Amino acid sequence: MKQYTPIKLDKIRNLRYGFAAIAKIEDRLDIGIAEINLNKIRLSQLATIVWAGLEHEDKNLSPEWVLETIDAYDLSLEEIGKAVGNSLTEAFQSEGKKK
């Protein structure tokens, strides 16, 4: 089972990146997950990645909601980036352990 990584947005939410979430990211961004560089990411791309990781909790969220929430709560992009990076790392480490 994939681990959850807490992220503070409008409330504490839990990022989770399974195969379905990763496929959504790849489809929306039109690049492979391994091609994403979190150090050079656009805000719209980051919002898509966060949205895909949260969709398991709430199907009503969207990348636009993520951006609006970041603005409304004056959230730290650095903290959001760290949470996403940690969650994606955990997802790939979990898959490696299953082999």
In brief:
It is built from 4 helices and 2 strands, in the order ββαααα. The chain has 99 residues and is mainly alpha-helical. Strand 1 (5-8) and strand 2 (12-15) form a beta hairpin.
Describe the model:
This protein has about 100 residues and is mostly helical. The protein has one domain. About 55% of the residues lie in helices and about 10% in strands. It has 4 helices and 2 strands. The chain has helices at about 20-30, 45-55, 65-70, 75-99; strands spanning about 5-10, 10-15. Strands 1-2 form a two-stranded antiparallel sheet. A hairpin with a 3-residue loop joins strand 1 and strand 2 (about 10-15). It is globular and about 40 Å long. The chain starts with a strand and ends with a helix. The model has no long low-confidence stretch (mean pLDDT about 90).
Poorly predicted residue ranges? none
Helical element count?
Answer: 4
Shape type: globular
* Integer count of domains: 1
Look at the structure and give the mean pLDDT: 92
State the separation between the terminal residues, measured CA to CA: 14 Å
Helix content: 55-70%
Series of secondary-structure elements, N-terminal to C-terminal: EEHHHH
The Rg value, from CA coordinates, equals: 13 Å
Instruction: Kindly estimate the percentage of residues that lie in beta strands according to DSSP.
Output: 5-15%
Largest sheet, in brief, is:
2 strands, antiparallel
Strand pairing plus helix content: what structural class? Answer: mainly alpha
Number of strands: 2
In what order do the strands lie side by side in the largest sheet?
A: 1-2
